[in-house]
From TrEMBL:
Family, as annotated: Belongs to the TRIM/RBCC family.
CDD domains registered for this protein in UniProt: Bbox2_TRIM36_C-I, FN3, RING-HC_TRIM36_C-I, SPRY_PRY_TRIM36
Protein's organism: Formicarius rufipectus
PROSITE patterns, A to Z: B302_SPRY, COS, FN3, ZF_BBOX, ZF_RING_1
Stated name of the protein: TRI36 ligase
Gene Ontology terms for molecular function: ligase activity; ubiquitin-protein transferase activity; zinc ion binding
Subcellular locations according to the entry: Cytoplasm, Cytoskeleton
Keyword Nucleotidyltransferase: no
Record-annotated B box-type domain positions: 187-229
Domain Fibronectin type-III: 396-492
Biological processes annotated in GO: acrosome reaction; spindle organization
Length: 710
């Protein structure tokens, strides 16, 4: 037998820290009181409604949610996990047992089983703990009598007299099941929480929970492996018995481990005191250094003050001597009273020199000393940054690395990072960034705390470079800073649009996705049928498509991605007054002049051909970017062919009449030219053969979450 009082730790709810009351089994196999689950969910929902969890911690005087749990509730509410997702709405529950966010499914708390076995054990513990405390009759008039039995069908306790009254012989109630006095009433049959009228008779081995036959036939467990309840009962009981026997047989080993852990507790206490002393000594050294520096600075200021006061005081005395009947002037007035010429000349010569100096000093007055102490200002900006980063550095906490491939700059910055190790040992990350500016000597880093491994940064300046770095924290221990990564913002505000499926759209050759952010051209039968005249001069067409929104003024930027397998793609802009000409120009790629025997090999036709184009486009294809031919361009064709960037961007400046084509991953301009912006300008695209274009999606606060769901 196991002593009931020795298992109290297993009977405590991890949320309220009290004995379980109507415990529910979570999908993670932890148990939580029914009331605690509801209160945590209420706090969780309130955090969404209030925009945070600052008030939700006060939702109940009974529940004591740990700070880490509240942090996770706040994190989930801020990140919006599973909200507005493409998947069905489900309920997230921050389990206080395993500190993970558990998906309760669409039914939420109603889909959880009540742990009647745990309730029975808790009741036995309560009875053993209170021993002499009796369970009173529920039906006696005051004062109630001590109960002698409890009815499992009525879920009530009775004394002998009340039991006879409420369960008379010869009635249905007389057949009720009764046991000794108890407060734990459990149903005779366990019913399915999803199908309330069905009893559970099978066990799902995938979800590790009892199910009914309707769950297996057409419910959420239709494709899961199930077994009969009796088989599951026998199998699990045998496994549990064997594991318990093994643990009991290892009692000596367990006691040895307990002894070892006791020694480790003492060693931890000693090591912590030693670490405290070392930390104290380190800060004492810093304190002494600061005290010495402070004393030296104050002494220097005091010395400079005394010297300046002495100089100014001397100057005051000199000017006081210039007053009538005082000092130098008074002395000179007395000398003027001398009547003997020889004696007067002997004294007046030197006196006259002094009088002249005093006169000059009056004409150009200048204080003998400066009153400001600007030279004695202590600049502690760098020291503040260093002291701000002062923390415990641990070799065990891995240095995060910013993933430049997953990070991107568009309308906002999405910064993602990874840890080189298999496990993430940090509880929280700190992301810092600042704008690169050569004029600023002191760099001010902007800081933000992140609970995940990515962060969307807003309000960045256009056409600017920013440096990013990240470090991990686990309690008071932090990792060193990651390598700084420099990313550049787009040259202009991001312009948002989708492909137009009305104006000139050829649905026989082009295929749009439902959101109209991707277009694909397939080299199918239409292209083969259009090539029938190959031997007599081929007029192969481009399939054009434009954006659904135009630009009238200002400077704008948009980005997109061209699939690597694309054969021929053209991208650029088209004015509104030339859109019709664009879609009616069906022979703009190959013409008879390109055939060897056509006789049209004159270079003069090129100029006419380029000038006749209705829009400004550049050519892409076969993983290459082709710089258009211009009079100033190199005659070597190889110099005009660049590798195709993974992301391309177009910057249109209507005010200056220029359009630029960019490597959007590095915000580097590949080609720029003039463009006529007299009308409303539209993004234009053309495809031929097998090709596909995907518009860049705007970065939002839920960008990574949305893509993870997809």
């Amino acid at each position: 037998k196991v002593a009931i009082k020795g298992i109290e730790r297993e009977l405590i709810c991890p949320a309220c820290k009290e004995l379980f009351t109507h415990p529910l089994i979570l999908p993670c196999q932890h148990n939580v009181c029914h009331k605690c689950v509801k209160e945590i969910l209420f706090a969780f929902e309130d955090s969404f409604a209030d925009g945070g969890s600052e008030s939700s911690n006060q939702s109940s005087p009974r529940i004591r949610i740990s700070s880490s749990s509240m942090d996770r509730i706040d994190r989930i509410s801020r990140s919006g996990i599973k909200r507005n997702s493409l998947t069905p709405r489900s309920t997230l529950f921050p389990c206080p047992g395993c500190q993970r966010d558990i998906d309760l499914g669409e039914r939420g708390i109603n889909g959880l089983f009540r742990n009647f076995t745990l309730e029975t054990i808790v009741e036995r513990y309560r009875q053993a703990a209170r021993a002499a405390i009796a369970i009173m009759c529920d039906f006696c008039k005051p004062p109630p009598q001590e109960s002698t039995k409890s009815c499992m069908d009525c879920s009530a306790s009775y004394c002998n007299e009340c039991f006879k009254i409420h369960h008379p012989w010869g009635t249905v109630k007389a057949q009720h099941e009764y046991v000794g006095p108890t407060t734990n009433f459990r149903p005779k049959v366990l019913m399915c929480p999803e199908h309330e009228m069905e009893r559970v008779n099978m066990y799902c081995e995938i979800c590790r929970r009892p199910v009914c036959h309707l769950c297996k036939l057409g419910g959420s467990h239709a494709n899961h492996r199930v077994t009969t309840m009796s088989t599951a009962y026998k199998t699990l009981k045998e496994k549990l018995s064997k594991d318990i026997e093994y643990l009991i047989s290892k009692e000596g080993q367990v006691k040895a481990h307990i002894t070892q852990l006791g020694l480790l507790l003492k060693e931890t206490e000693c090591n912590s005191e030693r670490a405290k002393e070392e930390a104290f000594q380190s800060f004492e050294k810093l304190y002494h250094v600061l005290e010495e520096k402070k004393s030296a600075a104050l002494r220097a200021i005091e010395t400079s003050k005394n010297i300046r006061l002495e100089k100014l005081q001397t100057q005051v005395e000199e000017y006081q001597g210039l007053l009538e009947n005082n000092g130098l002037v008074g002395y000179a007035q007395e000398v003027l009273k001398e009547t003997d010429p020889s004696c007067f000349v002997q004294t007046a010569k030197q006196l006259h020199v002094r009088i002249q100096k005093a006169t000059e000093s009056l004409k150009s007055f200048r204080p003998a000393a400066e009153t400001t102490f600007e030279d004695f200002v202590v600049d502690i900006t760098k020291q503040e940054d260093i002291l701000g980063d002062l923390s415990f550095h641990s070799n065990g906490l891995e240095i995060p690395e910013i993933n430049e491939e997953q990070s991107k700059m568009y309308n906002k910055a999405l910064i993602s990072w990874d840890c080189p190790g298999k496990t993430d040992s940090a509880d929280i990350y700190v992301l810092e960034y600042h704008k690169l500016n050569r004029e600023e000597e002191n760099v001010t880093w902007q800081k933000t705390e992140v609970y995940g491994k990515s962060k969307v940064v807003c309000d960045l300046d256009d056409d600017s470079s920013y440096a990013f770095r990240v470090r991990g924290y686990k309690g008071s221990i932090c990792s060193p800073w990651s390598r700084e990564v420099i990313l550049r913002t787009p040259p202009a505000p991001v312009f948002s649009f989708v492909f137009d499926d009305k104006c000139g759209y050829n649905n026989e050759h082009l295929q749009l996705n439902p959101r109209r952010t991707s277009v694909e051209s397939r080299a199918g039968y239409p292209l083969l049928l259009g090539s029938e005249r190959l031997q007599v001069g081929c007029y192969t067409t481009l399939d054009y498509i434009i954006g659904d929104t135009g630009i009238a003024k200002g400077k704008h930027f948009w980005a997109f991605r061209v699939e690597a397998y694309s054969y021929l793609v053209k991208v650029g802009v088209v004015p509104s007054n030339k859109i019709q000409k664009l879609f009616h120009s069906s022979h703009d790629v190959t013409s008879p002049r390109y055939e060897q025997d056509s006789g049209h090999d004159s270079g003069s036709e090129d100029a006419f051909f380029d000038s006749s184009q209705p829009c400004t486009l550049v050519t892409l294809g076969m993983k290459k970017f082709f710089i258009p031919t211009t009079p100033a361009a190199s005659k070597d064709p190889a110099s005009r062919i660049l590798p195709l960037p993974s992301r391309l961007g177009i910057c249109l400046d209507c005010d200056r009449g220029r359009v630029g084509f960019y490597d959007a991953s590095h915000m580097k301009c590949l080609y720029e030219c003039e463009v006529d912006c007299s009308g409303i300008m539209y993004p234009a695209f053309a495809l031929m053969g097998g090709a596909a274009i995907h518009l860049e999606e705007a970065v939002t606060a839920k960008y990574r979450e949305y893509h993870d769901d997809i």
